[in-house]
Amino acid sequence: MSGEEQEPRSYYVGVDVGTGSVRAALVDQKGLLMAFADQPIKKWEPQFNHHEQSSEDIWAACCVVTKKVVQGIDLNQIRGLGFDATCSLVVLDTQFHPLPVNHEGDAHRNIIMWLDHRAVSQVHRINETKHSVLQYVGGVMSVEMQAPKLLWLKENLKETCWDKAGHFFDLPDFLSWKATGVIARSLCSLVCKWTYSAERGWDDSFWKMIGLEDFVADNYSKIGNQVLPPGVSLGNGLTPQAAKDLGLPVGIAVASSLIDAHAGGLGVIGADVRGHGLACERQPMTSRLAVICGTSSCHMGISKEPIFVPGVWGPYFSAMVPGLWLNEGGQSVTGKLIDHMVQGHAAFPELQAKAAARCQSIYAYLNSHLDLIKKAQPVGFLTVDLHVWPDFHGNRSPLADLTLKGMVTGLKLSQDLDNLAILYLATVQAIAFGTRHIIEAMEAAGHSISTLFLCGGLSKNSLFVQMHADITGMPVVLSQEVESVLVGAAILGACASGDFTSVQEAMARMSKIGKVVFPRCEDKRYYDKKYQVFLKLVEHQKEYAAIMKEN
Ligand SMILES: Nc1ncnc2c1ncn2[C@@H]1O[C@H](COP(=O)(O)OP(=O)(O)O)[C@@H](O)[C@H]1O
Ligand SMILES: O=C(CO)[C@H](O)[C@H](O)COP(=O)(O)O
């Protein structure tokens, strides 16, 4: 053993709350995952487009996974804790007890999830104001942001929720409060989802104009009037109660948190890429696009100066990498769409049975099935006459149009496994075309992107990764650690512990690249043609809507 390996190691715990599950990892100073645990969390859909969760259920899951990853470790070696989570809205009363966000009055369900689209009328009215804060969310506010959801609560649940509410938290901030008792909000959450400006703070005129003047009157105490950059150590660290819940030592450093996509960005974007023949080796970090692909996909591009990209969220200052601007493109459902297409197909039970017989995931099975049926041609060519438009839950970027729907053209009278596999392929390709569409919008506005850095659950899917390379024409870098969102959360804990002097230093030391997947340039002409069809699909959808509106 070398002398270096004998030194006592420092560890950080990262906790990542995704849409479907909570994950924790014990991570060392080099960014290696020493232990990993996950736990599913509950979701409710009481009516179409209403999606709810429970902050108590989520905290309980955080405790289970954290206890698991520190089992058998000398707790004195754990130096810091960082949380990331989806940007869902948590509602608590003045005594920090959950309040119902539903007509049933079920206080257990006190979270309006990020993908909830109940506040359509509210966001429409907010966008009609044309207020200047909208310039910083790509020109159009998304129904998935917090202002429309808050307005919905005021207009629909005044007595049972709004009048009793003491605290509205973004989920990442709820978790750091729960761990430390500190109600300060992360700059990341407030800038990206609540219209806060890193330079100018809250804009009173916006809240007054949209009918939420209540927040101005009480100096924003319910939505946050202390704001800290991500990675800053909070209060006196972990409280005795939270330490008991999580199985960690009292007082260890807890970081101001990040939204999950942003933690994924930190986990991948700063890695040393030397020796892989990548163009971005000689280019600034701003040439890299981090794509965090889970239930949704988020496309995180950074720049030195603010870049205004129509239909792409931001520019947000210091919301991910300190000192840099962030633009965040996105697709509201990607993993969820693939699951939806596959699980809804008549051949799904057959797929499940065959994958189980081979002890494979359904996606690994589908990928090898496609390899069997492609014969001599490249696998992507199986969809020459099958095309999908992927906005089954509206378009987040670059069209920023929540009314758009999914489309499939080229259906046949077949319900067999081949048919399922090819439909799955066309869906994966459609998501990759969506990424290309977003990149083109970002480049037209001034970004210069040469390399994609993929992470999240979908980056485990080799077909998804290859299609992103082929369809964008860019190399795709995967991380050494598949769970790089958790590395991002651990980077926060490492910064809070004081072991690194800056987020940038922690990123450079803890994010490591793994495999690089290059595009198959010989297939470019085929994908360029399919992209033309992709763009026609949305044009036609708009034409159909216009025809149906005619008198
Ligand atoms: N082993 C796998 N192979 C292929 N796809 C996977 C695999 N594991 C997860 N996925 C895909 O990733 C998605 C979930 O990603 P994840 O990052 O766990 O989501 P979230 O953070 O939103 O909870 C699923 O919808 C599924 O489509
Ligand atoms: O809006 C987002 C980030 O700004 C994400 O889409 C949202 O947080 C959900 O993430 P995930 O797909 O990883 O569950």
Structural summary, described in words:
With 551 residues, the chain is an alpha/beta fold. The protein is built from 18 helices and 21 strands. The chain has helices spanning 3-6, 55-69, 120-128, 146-156, 171-180, 187-193, 204-209, 214-217, 240-246, 260-268, 335-343, 348-357, 362-373, 417-445, 462-472, 484-497, 503-510, 524-549, and strands at 11-17, 21-28, 33-40, 52-53, 78-85, 89-93, 111-112, 165-170, 185-186, 227-228, 253-254, 258-259, 288-293, 297-303, 313-317, 325-331, 387-389, 407-409, 451-455, 476-479, 513-517. The strands form five sheets. The protein has a seven-stranded mixed β-sheet with strand order 15-16-14-13-19-20-21, sandwiched between helices. Strands 1, 2, 3, 5, 11 and 12 form a six-stranded mixed β-sheet that branches. It has a four-stranded antiparallel β-sheet with strand order 4-7-6-8. The radius of gyration is 23 Å and the shape is globular. The chain starts with a helix and ends with a helix. It binds adenosine-5'-diphosphate and ribulose-5-phosphate. Ribulose-5-phosphate binds next to helix 10 and strand 16. Ribulose-5-phosphate (5RP) is lined by residues 18-19, 86-87, 114, 192, 259-261, 294-296, 298, 328, 330.
What descriptive keywords fit this protein?
alpha/beta, 7-stranded mixed sheet, 6-stranded mixed sheet, binds adenosine-5'-diphosphate, binds ribulose-5-phosphate
